[in-house]
Write a sequence for this structure.
């Protein structure tokens, strides 16, 4: 059950919201250090947000069936646009109650799978860096071979409201029918800001532009806008798809609201035109992610690791929230100190930071979308790529015995 927003509450809550507003006006840009009032705490960790990339597995897998490179790029753009509602509005669509997610600990995992008409699609999400915080993810649709990998961090600033620049990128690999080489898409992440803060009903609006560029030579540019004082609708966007480097030669244009519906037209946008309609998108029912029951999860899996904190948040028992959070934070601090003393670093379970070689995707496609060759590694703790060998080793590991699981939980989470 969602808790009431501050405007629906009285007295002390209103006062603590005012204090919160005052405090964010001077905060330092590190979102994890933001001390939010209790009623705005979410029991979901940011590692879980990677799920939002694929809640319609059939739309995710569809580009693998398309032999034409421009149409494939359009299908990828369509999939990307359909993920936005889940990514940025699913937690607060009706009431404006975007909350502060749990700040993941290093090594935190979120694993799941979808089983539906698109077959099995697997999700692996891992907190690969704590200072600065960065989450990496890998999603693969087994039958089609379509896979997405990426990582992200956030840099926040305050000017009228909380403004967030997303750092990182995603890479979508699409096997091409009857070709030996797959088509690769480099995806940048939109900036966002929080609306409704002053009224105590926070929700996200996207701003600026983001890009998707393909190894076969097509680029999509998406421009985001919101509701202005006089005109415009919430959560709006326009997008164009063109041959890379020829922005004026628009092949397809898309416009609408990413929370509602949008229309795809061929050719450039024409004022008030219903011509050349290719497709109209209305949100589909979501495919549900399957997550193992808590007792079968690895101790570092998010929902198991945070279960006591989540239960305390649900009950509104803030003393327990604070005690249980501190146990995890202290155990993590001790672990980092121990690693330092022993001259070792935390071994990521599924991802490896590429420091030795140039990343071929960023080298080839990064300049088209303004991404640096190092993937902003300095701001995300590394240029993170999914490591098939590590994943294979993790898959072969026998499940931990109860005794080993509780030893690990004690050592790494203080539980
Ligand atoms: C800014 C944000 C944390 C980051 C969240 C990200 C950017 C994470 C990656 C996902 O793919 C997309 C995504 C969606 C929502 C973003 C969160 C919204 C609010 C949260 C802030 C840390 C909380 C701000 C406090 C307040 C008052 C709004 O709750």
């Amino acid at each position: 059950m969602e808790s009431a927003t501050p405007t629906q509450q009285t007295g002390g809550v209103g006062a603590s919201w005012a204090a919160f507003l005052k405090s964010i006006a001077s905060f330092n840009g590190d979102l994890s250090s933001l001390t939010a009032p209790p009623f705005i705490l979410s029991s979901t960790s940011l590692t879980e947000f990677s799920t939002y990339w694929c809640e319609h597995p059939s739309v995710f897998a569809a580009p693998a069936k398309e032999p034409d490179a421009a149409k494939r790029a359009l299908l990828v753009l369509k999939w990307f646009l359909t993920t936005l509602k889940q990514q940025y509005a699913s937690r607060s669509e009706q009431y404006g109650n975007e909350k502060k997610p749990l700040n993941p600990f290093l090594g935190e995992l979120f694993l799941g799978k979808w089983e539906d008409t698109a077959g099995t699609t697997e999700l692996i999400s891992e907190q690969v860096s704590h200072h600065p915080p960065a989450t990496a993810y890998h999603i693969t649709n087994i039958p089609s071979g379509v896979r997405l990998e990426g990582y992200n961090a956030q840099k926040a600033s305050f000017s009228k409201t909380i403004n967030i620049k997303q750092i990182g990128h995603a890479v979508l690999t699409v096997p091409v029918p009857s070709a030996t080489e797959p088509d690769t898409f480099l995806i940048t992440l939109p900036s966002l800001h929080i609306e409704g803060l002053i009224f105590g009903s926070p929700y996200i609006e996207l701003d600026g532009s983001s890009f998707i560029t393909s190894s076969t030579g097509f680029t999509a540019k998406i421009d985001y806008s919101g509701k202005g004082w006089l005109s415009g609708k919430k959560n709006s966007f326009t997008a164009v798809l063109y041959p890379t480097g020829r922005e004026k030669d628009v092949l397809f244009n898309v416009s609408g609201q990413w929370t509602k519906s949008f229309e795809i037209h061929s050719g450039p946008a024409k004022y008030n035109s219903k011509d050349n309609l290719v497709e109209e998108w209305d949100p589909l029912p979501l495919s549900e992610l399957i997550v193992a029951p808590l007792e079968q999860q690895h101790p570092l899996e998010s929902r198991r690791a945070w279960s006591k904190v989540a239960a305390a948040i649900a009950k509104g028992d803030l003393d327990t929230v604070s005690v249980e959070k501190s146990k995890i934070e202290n155990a993590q601090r001790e672990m980092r100190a121990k690693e330092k003393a022993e001259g070792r670093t935390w071994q990521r379970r599924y991802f490896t930071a590429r420091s030795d070689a140039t990343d071929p995707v960023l080298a080839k496609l990064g300049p088209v979308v303004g991404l640096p060759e190092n993937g902003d590694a300095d701001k995300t703790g590394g240029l993170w790529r999914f490591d098939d060998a590590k994943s294979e080793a993790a898959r072969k590991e026998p499940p931990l015995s109860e005794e080993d699981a509780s030893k690990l939980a004690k050592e790494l989470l203080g539980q």
